[in-house]
Amino acid sequence: MNNTLKAALWMLAAIASFTSMAVAGRAVSGDLDTFEIMLFRSLTGIVIVLVVASVTGNLGQIGRNKLGLHMLRNICHFTGQNLWFFAIATIPLAQVFALEFTTPIWVILLAPLILREKMTAVGMFSALLGFVGVLIVTRPDTAVMSPGLIAGAICAIFFALSAIFTRKLTLTEPITVIMFYLTVTQAVFGLICAGYDGDITLPTGTTIPLIILIGFAGLFAHFCLTTALSIAPLNVVMPFDFFRLPTIAVVGMIWFDEPIQMMVFAGAALIFGANYLNISYGSAKRGHVHK
User: Residue 288 and residue 182: Cα distance in Å, rounded?
Assistant: First the structure.
């Protein structure tokens, strides 16, 4: 089995996990608010991370280095994830996934400010192309900008910030440490935000399996994506990620009676093209320098 096929299989597993998390999140949104979902999802994640770390012998890696950066990264991720759960409960799933594809565009724009990376002309063009795609997806001049659409668009910004800070953490911190503080801090954030009014709805026998699925699928999806990227380069892996959109569109149509909107696909294709252009240019440039 060649590396491309291996990466494709890992990406199929990631797509299945992302789709499962979205469907389960939509299913529990009628019983739990986004903060409660994040609380119970994070508690599930803590158990999974600790068990895996113990089995692999990595539990001793957990220390107290870079706590400030961990906190900053996890605040961004917590905010983005809550907005994402709110969006999947209020707008079509395909629209949420299309808007989420803008995360790399925001990384292009924000990385020079935070990581002091140079902004290239291709990067700027890719960002512009991506925002045209966003306008096609949201169509603000022909449809009311609902809170769900706004949440879906803004969550990508916070996911981008989370990715940038994660990149800084990976320079010195093992993945076990990053995932441990991600789940622990988000459980604390979820408890505070869900319990500020003294009223936290507990999962029922019906929602507990869905909460466990959300916690497992979220961690497993990122593990599959990371594994795929370790096997094959970005410009090979990324096209497979785009299959998330037709997959979730079909799931939304079958399970939630959501119509398939071709404008969403058109805008998402433009966003994908912008991301692929930036990645392909960067890969080609690195290869040229290496030679």
Answer: 37
